[in-house]
Amino acid sequence: MKGFTLLRTALIAALFSTLSSSLAAQWPVYTAGIPKGPDGKPNLTAPTPRTSEGKPDFSGVWMIASGADTRNLPFQPWAADLQQKRLAENGLNDPDGLCMPQGPLQYHVDPQPLKMVQTPTQIVIIYESNYGLRTIYMDGRKLPPLGEPQPFWHGYSVGRWEGDTLVVESNNFHGVDPKQFRGVEPDSFHGVGWLDHRGSPYTEALTLTERFRRLNYGRLEIEMTVDDPLAYTKPFTLHVSQRIVADGSEMIEFICHENQMFLKLTGRAPR
User: From the centroid of its chain, how far is CA 76?
Assistant: First the structure.
């Protein structure tokens, strides 16, 4: 028990060390283009900005405002077992701490910001956390069949407009293989297939549908529907809210392995 307590303390210390260094450092502030109210402060309820094509413009730096509750998901039995084992380990093999790409919900609720860059044919999401990079294709292409391309850490994503809602469908994720799970998480699972920080797994059968709505200048709503018949008994939907970073701050350069302490504290640093 003492060893477990020390490990948990080390994990928490590593997490807060990472977050504090990220939040303390920042690029110079540049506030051009932010709507202001009569008092000179940012007007976050100003109308949604639009592109030259008349579509909502999601460009900007965003931070988590409210997350999603994943405590009662419709797990398949093996997935429930794996999630409980991951949860009991207090994030020991969470991809965030291992400097690996995070899962789709993890990125949406991470305390570090993300930046959206929008063009007519592509939308790019840059995550400060572990410097993740995701491309959403807006050129009319269709999702490829499952297993046709090599699995992507962030999935293969295509988007379309339904009115003012950006609908993004993704598949071909790099997930876990349930056939390899025999009550103990194999090394091949470490950092792979984490939907959330509770360790809820996903497999390569996952199809993810996201609906992005920019309600006004300062608020972004994201609805996520997870459809993974190998890990869950039925599809389910989660909701996340994000807020614009309105003071002109930009993301910092976050190189996860620079001054990496998590692997050292957990006895897994390269030798």
Answer: 23
83 is in which domain, residue-wise?
Answer: 2-265
- Tell me the per-residue pLDDT of 57-82, one tens digit each, with 9 for 90 and over: 999 999 999 999 999 999 999 999 99
Phi and psi at residue 40, to the nearest 5°:
85, 0
SS3 146: coil
8 Å CB contact between 200 and 70: yes
Report the CATH number at residue 141: 2.40.128.20
Q: Express each pLDDT in 199-208 by its tens digit.
A: 999 999 999 9
For residue 229, is it within any domain?
Answer: yes
Bridge-partner residues for 193, per DSSP? none
Q: Write down the pLDDT at residue 165.
A: 98
The band of 1, judged by pLDDT with boundaries at 50, 70 and 90, is very low
- Among residues 172, 142, 141, 140, the alpha carbon closest in space to that of 156 is found at 172
The number of domains in the chain is 1
